Structure formats: C-alpha cells, structure tokens
Amino acid sequence: MGTSSSATSGGSVEGGGVVLPVGGGVGPVRTSASARVSLPGTPLAASAARRFVRAALADWAALEVPAADRVTDRVADEAILLVSELVTNAVVHAGTAVEVSCALDVSDREGEPPSLVVEVTDHHPTRVVRGDPPDPDERPEYAGGHGLRLVAEIAESWGTTYRRATKSVWFQMAVAPTSAAAAGTGAMGSAFMDAAATMDPAADTVAAPEGGFGAGTVREGLGPAPEGAGVVCEGRKEAVEIVAPAPGRAPVRVDPDWIQRGALSFLAEASDLLAGQFDEDMVTSLAGQLLVPRLADWCAIWLDSTSGPPRLARVWHASEGRIEGLRRVLEKEPPQVPAAVRGSAVEWPWPADPAAYGPGGAALACRLVAGGRALGTLLLGRAGLVRMPDEAVGLVEDFARRVALALASARRYTRQATISRVLQRGLLPSVIPRIPGVESAVVYEPTGDISAGGDFYDVFPAGDGRWCFVLGDVCGNGPEAAVVTGLVRPWLRLLAREGYGVGEVLDRLNQLLGEEAVEQAVEGAAEAVAAGVEAVGGPAGVVELMDGGLVGTGLPAGGGVARFLSLLYGELEPLGEGEGVRCTLASAGHPLPLVLRPEGGVRTVAAPQILLGVVDDVTYESESFDLAPGETLLCVTDGVTEHRSGDRQFDDEDGLAAAFALCAGLSAREVAERVRQAVDEFAAEPPDDDLAMLVLKVV
C-alpha cells in the first residue's frame, strides 16, 4: 500500500496550485492539503481507507494546515462513512485496486467555506453494473450496497468521472465556519451518530427510534456504535432513512425546490455524459445511473428492435441487491406505452412485486423518441409517492429526449462503423502472399473505425515469376474513397496479369480514372451516404454532426476530388537463389520509397511524378534496380511523412530516412514496428491521417 501526502500554508501550493472541478457551484479552488493512497482490491480495503482518511485529517490538524481546524467530528465521520461505502462498492463490483485521494480545498471566493473533497478511483470503467443476488453467507466486510444513494444524500455535491482506463467517484463536503469548529460537536457529532438509534452492542442492531423505522433493523457494515450513542435527534434522519433497509426505510421526499434549482444543472451534466457515447448499451447504463437515486429509486430501459421484441437493455435499482429480482420481473412485464403519447411521460401502475421494486410509490413510463422515430421505453419509479410532481415529470421528459438523441447517434455510429468494416474487409487483401526470397510486413492504421480509410495496399502474383506490390492513397476518405479503391485494385491486377509494364499500367489507370463512369460512381456514393443518413431519421443537428464529424465532410456533387490518387506500384522478379531480386517501380505523386543497405546506408529510389487522375495526357516512367540480399525496401503513405508535431513534420530534415537507418539488421516485421513506433513517439497527438507502410526485405 503506497501513500503520498502534501500540505501547503499561506498562499502557495507545493508544485503549483491545483484546480478541481467540483460541483455545487463552488468554482475554482486552491488545495490547502492533499493525500493519496493505493489500496489492493481486497476485503480489507474499506477499513484501510477509513484509517487513511482519519490519519490524513489528524496530520493536517497537527501541521496546522489552513482550514484543517474547521473540520468537525461530524464532517470527519460523514467523510469516513462515505469513503467506506465507495471503496466497498469499487472492490466488490470492479474487483481492481483502488486509489483514494483526500484534499482540503480553500475557495478563492470571499465568504465561501473551505471544503473536503474525497475521490475513489477504480480501474474498471466499463464494469457491468448488474450484480448477482446477495449471498446470505456473504462475509461482513462486503456488507453495504448503499453506495451512491448515501453519497447523494449526505455530500454537498458529488459526481462520477469516466476516463479511458479508470472510473472515479468524488464527493465534496463543506467544513464548518471557524466559530462552529471552535465550539465543536464532540465524538457523537457525526451525521450518522446523530441519526442512529440506541444500540444494543450484543445484538449489533438498532432499536426503533420514536416514530422510527422499525425495530431490530440491522446496522449494515458500520460496526457497533460507540458508547453513549443517544436517541435520534430531530432533523437529522437522513442517514437512518438511507441505511435502514426497505420496507422499514422511510420514504424519501421529492424536493420541489431542488428540482427548480438543479434541473438545468442535471440536464447539462446528462448531456455532457451522453453526448460522447457511441455505444447504445453505454448510453443506457449512464442514463440509469444518472436517474437513480436522484429522481427515482429504480429504472429500466427497453430498446426497440426492427427484427424482434424490445430488448431490456438496462435495469438499475438504488438497492443493488434488488437489481436481479427487478430484472426478472420486468422481463415478464414489458410496458406497452400507447403510440399516441410519443415522448410524453405517462403514469404507470406500481408493480405488484415489492420484493423486486420496494414499497409502493409512483411510476412513470416514457417513450424514447428522436426525429419522429421511437427507439425504446424508459420506466422509472419513486417509492413513497402517490404521484410524481409535475416538475419531476417535466424533468424526466427532458431527460428522456436527451437519452433518445444519444441513442440515435449511437445507432448511426454503429451502423456506419459496420458499413465501414465491411467495406474495409472487401477493399484490402485478407492475406499477404509469400514472395520467394523476400520477407514482407504491412502496417495499416486508419484514423478511425467510423469511415473506410483512403489508404490501401496489395501484393499479388502477376504470372511469369513476377510479383506486384501496390501502396496507394485516395484523396479523401469514406465511401467516396472506398469506391475509387474498389475500382483501382481489380484494375491493377487485371492490367498486370495482361502483361503490361509498370509505366503502362499507370498510363492506363490514369485514363480509366478520368472516365465519366468513375465520376458518376463517386457522386453516387456521396448521394447514397446522404440518403442513408436521412433514412435513419433524426433532427438536423444530429445529421450535421454525423456528416461533419463521423461520416465525413462529404464531397460536393461533381467535385470528383476523390478520383485523385497517389500510387506507388512496382514489380519484383527473383534473380535466383542468393542473388536478390530485380525491382521495377514508379511513383505517381506518392512519397518516394527508401532502400536500406545492410551496413545502414539509406538511398531514395524512383522519381516523383504527377498524381493519377489529374491530367489525362501524361506518360509515366518506371525505374529498375536490383535489391541485394539483406537490403530492405520501405514504402509509406503521407500519413507517415506528414505526421505533425507543432510546425514540424516527421520527414522534415529526412526524419524518415534517419529512423530507417537505425533498422539495419532487423527483419521486415521489426522494421515496420520500429518505424511505426518512431512515428508514434514523434508527437503527443496520434496521426490525423491514415497511416500505411509496406516493408520488403530480400533474404
């Protein structure tokens, strides 16, 4: 277990100030002190996290860190309770190591109290939120399950951050003003201890308080109460209301003021989280966690299917142990919302199975509609209510519209990605044939999986002992570029097998690209894409996003830009055992290939010539040379040579040749990997163009 801690005093912060995006409108803050610990994903992690928070607060107080003296026993106890729940959830559901950080922040705004911010991070951001039913023999260190509901009720603000490899849940608690801290609240001043009922240490159960929540309620995961625990204090029942299991739990009241103040903030957060998701199952998962426990005690989302009944995609309950039971009930009773209500929320009968749903309450069903198309159904319920307040109904409808838009975008993305993968499989060779006496390796990295790349390659036998290789780059990408690639590859194979030389193949290919039929095919592809997007439906804003950012910018009718093509085309003829090969090649607007000698020298071969498809009346020339055993030929697209780092390109000052020279003695596969690694390390940002390279080494 590793720990780190830092503290500051006065107006400076070691290593520079830290700005944390915390909720609740607190704004930018200056970290007064911070500590971090890494814990293994074992049952002992929760107790270790509690000790860590206690120790951090004690250390800061001993060091007289600014605002540390304002942390009351109540704030400390609440923070320890919440971090225990979050770490337990992370260990049980994510099953990974956990990082816990604790920071004492001072707001730059005058009059704003300092705050304690705690963050729990696990390393399984895409964990399945469903869980198995609770095991009656479950060890006590895994007890709990109140998790985010407890955080939402006790913390001043909280949130969840999804990163590529981690998921973090943080909460913020305001510390008391100086006067309140000086007065102190004592060891019994925590929120939970104020709310806890009288405790029987032997039975480890909570006696029912006056007007309370049921006698004999198990005090889950909290251990025995300290001596002197008193009766329930009026006005501090939040923790008992949350911790006491249903049906004894008192209904949580809907706060109309919170709905009025927080609706815009809630919807903005929902839009931010949902907008970047292109997987519909992830959209439904986030939607469920956003709704529960803020607006509902449980929710479920069905997704419509064109080929079968709706699919129950996500079920979420504030009590995680009820999720599986709730799912089993819902699978038998999918809601049938009248088509006439469209995107409006309608009251729905509270289900009759309290074991799955909890005590009675109010339920709403809402169709998920985007662009006039129904995509699914949202069903949610809140215990303890006769009917949902009008403010909550309106908020649910606004939220449902955002979920529907996110689902529509995810489906478009999935549909286009599937089309692109099918195109890509048809446009590239499934295997690279083995050329006698030559090692070969290919690197192909399109910029994304949503559109077919503009780069392509091919290696094939042409008869009479000749082997042909191709590396090309169509100007543009997406379906328009795919059409050109789909025409060029079979033309090249046909011309080569008809016996045309390298220069003649390029001459005839250039003439074919200028024909009207090719232009019509490219324009037809652009029109088909536009028609396909419109057929899916959806508001114009979403279609523009897809056209501009996902499918591609599109080509104007008659523009024909995608018909332009840079191409490196060559032939290899083995000269005999141990004598190398004869190489004949020509470059049409393509980066020139390089040859690496065994001792590390690098030379450029071929001469630059004009792009294919630009000028009709042009003659292409080829160049022939011998490749001796041990020599390596490197062919790349401009995604390698023009990869940028600021104002510099990878091939500035012969950067590609310098990287290639370091590959002497390596196999073709190792050369390809070494050059690709050099390109990746050249800039922090990934390449913004398709990247392809072909390596041929004579052995």
UniProtKB/TrEMBL annotation:
Pfam families: HATPase_c_2, SpoIIE. Residues 438-698 form the PPM-type phosphatase domain. Keywords: Hydrolase. CDD domains: HATPase_RsbW-like (cd16936). Gene3D superfamilies: 3.30.450.40, Histidine kinase-like ATPase, C-terminal domain (3.30.565.10), PPM-type phosphatase domain (3.60.40.10). Coiled coil: none annotated. The keyword Cell membrane does not apply. PANTHER family: STAGE II SPORULATION PROTEIN E, STAGE II SPORULATION PROTEIN E-RELATED. This is Serine phosphatase RsbU, regulator of sigma subunit. It comes from Streptomyces melanosporofaciens.
